[in-house]
Automatic annotation (TrEMBL):
Catalyzes the phosphorylation of pyruvate to phosphoenolpyruvate. It comes from the Bacteria. This is Phosphoenolpyruvate synthase. InterPro entries: ATP_grasp_subdomain_1 (IPR013815), PEP_synth (IPR006319), PPDK_AMP/ATP-bd (IPR002192).
C-alpha cells in the first residue's frame, strides 16, 4: 500500500514537472499579461524575506543576523514562475536576489537581460505594463537593493576584457535600464510620455512626431505653447501628464555638469594619466564653442573611451567611464541636431564625425570602422571631387547607417519578436533604441548628401511624397502593380498573396512568390529569396526604417512599383499611373517568358543508387537533377574540395510513384496527372485563376501527405545501406548526412529554382534518413515550391526529384559566391556572402557580403546574424550565438575564393553549360580548408533588365562631373 502511494506521488511529481515545463502558447501568455495588468499585485504573490542562507521567511519574520540577514521583496505567483520554466519569460523581474550569471543569461544570448530592458520599455509606454496596478504594491521592490545589486553586477561582468569588447553596445545600453547609480533612461521616458499624450489627444501628434524624430530643446516651447493654446480643452489628468513630460524634457536638455564629472574621474586610480585629454576637454570653457566644435570634441572623447576602456583594469573604473560615455552621448545627440552644415565639405565632415560616433557608441565594430575611415579622409583632403567619387562615398555612408540599425536589431530583434507575439507594443522597442542613438542624425545627414548627389546626377526616386526617400535604393529591376502591404512586425507570421507588393522589416527566409518587395534589411544579395526575385524580375529595393513608417499610411492601397537597372525607385498610387505604365499590364501586350521543361531525355529505368563520382554535368535532367550532376562534375574537377556522395535518381522516385495510392484506386503518378488535367478542364470552363490555384494546392497537399507515408521498396533500402557502407566507409546510422532535393526543374537557362525544395541537415539515425527521403520527395509538392514553379513553368506537373546524399561537414562558416558583381562591380568581380556555421547566407541571413576584385575585398555589409548552427557528430543541429567584433572571412579565405573562381572559369566549359555563365557557388570553410557543396548557373531576368520602360526611367549618369566641395548643399 505504502509502495503504491509512493509511486503515485512520484508520478504526480513527474506530471507536475512536465506540465510546468510544457511551453505555453501566445494566447495563454497574452491572457496572463492581461490578468497581471488588472491585479493589484501584478505577477507578484506576497512580500517575503529572502535570507542569505537560502531560506525564505514571512514578511513579519525578518532574517536574523545570525544567518547573515537578508533582503525583503515580493515573491512571484506560481503562474509567473511556471512561465519562466516553460517559456523562459521573466515578467516584473526583481534583480536583488537573482544570481549574476542567471540574469546575464549568456547561453541564451543574454535573453533575460534583454527582457528586463524590454519590460522597462513596455512599462514606460503602457503605464507599468504587467505592473499597471502592481507598481503601487508597497514593498514589492526595494530601490536601494536593486541599485546595490546593479552596481555589483556590473563590477563583476566588467572584469572580463573579452566580454566588454565583444558586447560594448549591449553593455552601454543596459546601463540605461539597470539601476546602479540613480540614473534612468530619460530619453526613453521623454518619447514614451509624449506618445501617451498623443494617444490621448489626437492633435498633439505633430509635436509628438517632432520629439520622436527630430528632438531639440526648442520642443519644450512647442509643448508649452500647445498647453497655453489649448488650456481650456486639457483635462486635469492630462495636465499632469504634460507637466511630467516638461519636467522630463527639462531633465533631458539640462546642461552636463562637467565639474562634477571631473571630480568623479579624478577618483580613478588606475591609469589616470590616460585621461589627460578627456580632463582637458572637461575643463575647457565651452561658451564660445559652436555645435560643430562640441560634436567633434565629444566624438573624439567617446572614441577614446571605447579604444582605451580595457586599459583600465578595475571594473569599478570601467563602470564609471561607461556611465560617463552615456552622459557624453546624451549631449552629443542634442548637439548633432544643432549642427547644420552649409557646404558639401562640411556635410561630408559631419558624416565622417557621426560615423566615428557610431563606432564610439558601439553601433559599428572597430574592424568595420577601420575599413571606412579612409574613404572620408581622402575626399576631405581635396578641394573638389567627382560625381563618381561622391556617389561611392554616399554608398559607404549609407551602409554605415544600415550597419548601425542592423546591429540594434541583431542584439534585440529575437527577444522583441518573442514578446511581440503576445504584446504588440514590444515592436516599438528596436525603433526606440535606434532613435536614441546617433544613427537618427547620421541617417538625416547621409540623406542630405544623397539628395545632393542625386540632384547632380539626376537619379531621383519617386516614392509617393514621403520625406527622406533618398535612403531608398533599388536591388533588382522590374515593375509590378498590386496591393501594397506594409509589414512592420515579424515577416514569418504573414501569409503572402502573389498579387501583392510587400514592404518588410526583413525578408522572410521562406518567401512565396509576390509581385514586388521592399525591405529595411535586405538580408544579403545572394540569399535564395534575392536570387529568385532577380530571376523572376520581381522589383526589389531597400529602404530605411523611417521610410517604412512613412509608407504605412498607404497600406492596402493599390500601387504601381518599379525599379530601374540604375537603382532608382518609383512607387505611386494606382490612380497616378501614366498611360505607358498602364499598358505594361495589358494582358495581351505584356509578354512573359514561360518555359517548358524537357522530359524526353529522362532515364526512368535507372533504379539503383548512383555513386557521385559516376555522374557529370551532362547527366543533369536525365538521371538526376543539376545539384548532383554538377557536384559529380566538380568531384572530378576538384577531387580534394568535394566530399563523397551518393544519388537517388529520378527512376527510383518514379518507381515509387507508380505504386497504388491508398484509397484512390490509382497510382500516385496518375493522381498527380489527373490533378493537372482537372485544372486544365477548369480553366477551359472559365473558372477563375484563384479557384484553380486553390484546387491545385488542396490536391497537392493531399499528394504531399501521401508521399510522406509511402512504403519504400525493400530492395531500394538494401541498396541504400550497401552504398552507405561502400562510399561513406561506415553503415547507415553512423555517418551524419545531408539529404538535398534535386529536381529536373532547377537551374534551367531562365529559372533557377534556388531553395524551393527541402534540404535536411545532418541526419544520423537510419529511420530518420528513411523518413527524410520521403520528406524530400514530398517537398516538391509544397504550396511554396508549386507557386514559384507555376509562375514560370508551362509544365510544373512534370517535376521529378532526385536526392543527393553527402556526408556532413561541420564548417566554421559557409556561404555563396556569384562569379560576377551584383549591383556593384563588373563581370570579372565576385559577390560573396558568408555566415557562421552551416547553411550560411542562403536563407536570407544578414550575412557578411563582399565584392571581391582581383586585388581588393570591399565590405558591402558585415554579418549581423546573432545565431548560427553547427553540425555535431551525433546528428541534428546545435544553435550557437556569436558577436560581430571580427570579420568572418580572413585574407587567406579571400585568396582561396579568388583561386576557386579562377579555376571554375577555367575548368568548367561547354560540357557543364551550353554558354558562358556566371555561377552561383555554395561552399564553406572548415579549419580554413575550402569545401565545395554546389554550383549552378546564375540566372538573371534579362527581360526585366532590357525592358524599354525600365530603361526609360533610368537616368544617364556622367560620373566624371567635377564638384567643388565648397558648394552650398
Amino acid at each position: 500500500m505504502k509502495k503504491s502511494i509512493l509511486i503515485t506521488l512520484i508520478l504526480l511529481l513527474v506530471y507536475n514537472v512536465n506540465s510546468h515545463a510544457q511551453e505555453k502558447d501566445n494566447e495563454k501568455i497574452k491572457q496572463l499579461v492581461e490578468e497581471y495588468k488588472k491585479d493589484i499585485r501584478g505577477p507578484y504573490y506576497r512580500i517575503k524575506w529572502f535570507c542569505k542562507d537560502g531560506s525564505i521567511r514571512d514578511s513579519k519574520d525578518p532574517c536574523p543576523d545570525s544567518i547573515g540577514g537578508g533582503i525583503q521583496h515580493a515573491s512571484f505567483k506560481k503562474s509567473a514562475l511556471d512561465l519562466r520554466e516553460s517559456n523562459h519569460l521573466f515578467f516584473g523581474e526583481i534583480l536583488a536576489s537573482v544570481k549574476n550569471e542567471d540574469f546575464l543569461d549568456e547561453k541564451n544570448n543574454f535573453s533575460r537581460l534583454k527582457q528586463y530592458q524590454i519590460g522597462k520599455y513596455l512599462a514606460s509606454i503602457d503605464d507599468g505594463w504587467v505592473l499597471k496596478k502592481g507598481q503601487f504594491y508597497r514593498g514589492s521592490i526595494q530601490s536601494e537593493d536593486e541599485e546595490t545589486w546593479g552596481k555589483n553586477f556590473y563590477e563583476n561582468i566588467l572584469k572580463n576584457d573579452s566580454f566588454l569588447n565583444s558586447n560594448y553596445y549591449l553593455i552601454r545600453q543596459s546601463l540605461k535600464d539597470i539601476p546602479h547609480n540613480g540614473d534612468n533612461n530619460v530619453a526613453q521616458n521623454m518619447r514614451s510620455e509624449s506618445k501617451v499624450l498623443a494617444e490621448e489627444i489626437a492633435d498633439f501628434m505633430d509635436i509628438r512626431i517632432k520629439i520622436h524624430g527630430n528632438p531639440q530643446k526648442s520642443d519644450i516651447y512647442l509643448v508649452q505653447g500647445y498647453m497655453k493654446e489649448n488650456a481650456s480643452k486639457i483635462s486635469s489628468s492630462n495636465r499632469k501628464l504634460f507637466e511630467k513630460l516638461l519636467n522630463t524634457m527639462d531633465e533631458f536638455y539640462a546642461p552636463l555638469d562637467y565639474k562634477v564629472i571631473l571630480q568623479e574621474i579624478s577618483k580613478i586610480e588606475d591609469n589616470n594619466k590616460l585621461l589627460t585629454g578627456l580632463k582637458s576637454f572637461l575643463n575647457e570653457d565651452k561658451t564660445s564653442f559652436s555645435s560643430k566644435d562640441i560634436v567633434i570634441k565629444l566624438t573624439n572623447n567617446l572614441e577614446f573611451l571605447r579604444q582605451t576602456i580595457t586599459l583600465f583594469k578595475r571594473s569599478k573604473d570601467r563602470l564609471q567611464l561607461l556611465d560617463l560615455s552615456n552622459q557624453l552621448e546624451k549631449i552629443l545627440l542634442i548637439e548633432t541636431q544643432n549642427w547644420n552644415p552649409k557646404t558639401l565639405e562640411e556635410t561630408i565632415l559631419k558624416t565622417q564625425t557621426l560615423t566615428c560616433a557610431s563606432f564610439a557608441t558601439g553601433l559599428v565594430e572597430a574592424w568595420e570602422f577601420d575599413l571606412v575611415k579612409p574613404i572620408f579622409s581622402s575626399t576631405l583632403e581635396k578641394d573638389e571631387t567627382t560625381l563618381g567619387e561622391l556617389t561611392s562615398l554616399v554608398s559607404h555612408a549609407r551602409r554605415i547607417v544600415e550597419w548601425s540599425t542592423s546591429l540594434v536589431k541583431a542584439n534585440y530583434q529575437e527577444d522583441v519578436n518573442d514578446y511581440a507575439a503576445f504584446e504588440s507594443l514590444a515592436y516599438g522597442f528596436v525603433d526606440d533604441r535606434i532613435r536614441n542613438s546617433i544613427t537618427l542624425n547620421l541617417g538625416e545627414t547621409v540623406s542630405k548628401l544623397n539628395a545632393y548627389a542625386s540632384k547632380v546626377s539626376e537619379v531621383n526616386n519617386n516614392v509617393m511624397n514621403i520625406s527622406n526617400q533618398d535612403a531608398i535604393r533599388g536591388l533588382n529591376p522590374g515593375y509590378a502593380h498590386g496591393k501594397l502591404i506594409v509589414v512592420d512586425g515579424n515577416p514569418d507570421l504573414v501569409e503572402v498573396n502573389s498579387n501583392n507588393i510587400y514592404i518588410f522589416q526583413k525578408p522572410p527566409s521562406d518567401l512565396k512568390p509576390v509581385a514586388g518587395i521592399m525591405t529595411v534589411s535586405e538580408g544579403n544579395l545572394v540569399s535564395h529569396v534575392q536570387l529568385l526575385a532577380r530571376n523572376l524580375g520581381i522589383p526589389n529595393a531597400a529602404l530605411s526604417n523611417d521610410n517604412l513608417k512613412s509608407l504605412e499610411k498607404y497600406n492596402n492601397r493599390n500601387v504601381f512599383y518599379a525599379v530601374s537597372s540604375k537603382g532608382n525607385v518609383i512607387l505611386k498610387l494606382e490612380n497616378d499611373m501614366t498611360d505607358e505604365e498602364k499598358l505594361l499590364f495589358n494582358k495581351v501586350e505584356k509578354s512573359k517568358n514561360m518555359i517548358e521543361v524537357p522530359t524526353n531525355k529522362l532515364k526512368l529505368d535507372v533504379s539503383k543508387i548512383i555513386n557521385l563520382r559516376d555522374v557529370k554535368a551532362t547527366d543533369s535532367g536525365i538521371l538526376c537533377g543539376p545539384k548532383a550532376a554538377n557536384l559529380g562534375e566538380l568531384k572530378n574537377l576538384f577531387p580534394n574540395k568535394v566530399v563523397e556522395g551518393i544519388i537517388i535518381p529520378f527512376g527510383i522516385f518514379k518507381t515509387h510513384m507508380n505504386k497504388e495510392m491508398p484509397s484512390k484506386n490509382m497510382t500516385y503518378w496518375e493522381f498527380l496527372n489527373s490533378t493537372f488535367a482537372k485544372a486544365k478542364e477548369l480553366k477551359n470552363n472559365n473558372t477563375s485563376n484563384e479557384d484553380i490555384e486553390k484546387f491545385l494546392i488542396r490536391s497537392l497537399k493531399e499528394l504531399h501527405t501521401a508521399i510522406m507515408n509511402i512504403n519504400l521498396d525493400a530492395s531500394f533500402t538494401e541498396d541504400l545501406k550497401s552504398n552507405f557502407s561502400s562510399v561513406f566507409g561506415d553503415k547507415m546510422g553512423n555517418v551524419p548526412v545531408f539529404l538535398r532535393s534535386d529536381t529536373n526543374m532547377e537551374d534551367l537557362k531562365e529559372f533557377t529554382g534556388a531553395g524551393l525544395n527541402l534540404t535536411l541537415f545532418n541526419i544520423l539515425e537510419e529511420q530518420k534518413i528513411i523518413n527524410g527521403i520521403k520528406e524530400v520527395w514530398a517537398s516538391a509538392y509544397t504550396e511554396r515550391s508549386f507557386k514559384w514553379r507555376q509562375k514560370y513553368l508551362l509544365n510544373p506537373e512534370n517535376v521529378y526529384p532526385s536526392i543527393l546524399i553527402i556526408p556532413s561537414v561541420d564548417v566554421d562558416y559557409s556561404g555563396v559566391m556569384i562569379t560576377k558583381g551584383i549591383n556593384e562591380g563588373s563581370e570579372s568581380d565576385l559577390t560573396v556572402a558568408f555566415s557562421r556555421g552551416a547553411g550560411g547566407a542562403v536563407d536570407g541571413q544578414s550575412a557578411e557580403t563582399r565584392l571581391i576584385t582581383a586585388d581588393t575585398s570591399y565590405l558591402l555589409s558585415p554579418a549581423r546574424q546573432p545565431d548560427y548552427i553547427r553540425l555535431p557528430k551525433t546528428g541534428s543541429t546545435k544553435k550557437h550565438y556569436t558577436n560581430f567584433n571580427k570579420p568572418i572571412l580572413n585574407n587567406g579565405n579571400v585568396n582561396d575564393i579568388r583561386e576557386l573562381a579562377t579555376e571554375i572559369r577555367t575548368k568548367i566549359g561547354s560540357d557543364f553549360s551550353e554558354q558562358s555563365h556566371a555561377y552561383d557557388v555554395e561552399f564553406g570553410f572548415k579549419d580554413d580548408k575550402l569545401w565545395l557543396f554546389q554550383i549552378r548557373p546564375f540566372v538573371e531576368n534579362k527581360q526585366a533588365k532590357s525592358s524599354d520602360y525600365l530603361n526609360s526611367i533610368a537616368p544617364k549618369v556622367k560620373i566624371s562631373t567635377k564638384i567643388d566641395l565648397k558648394e552650398k548643399i
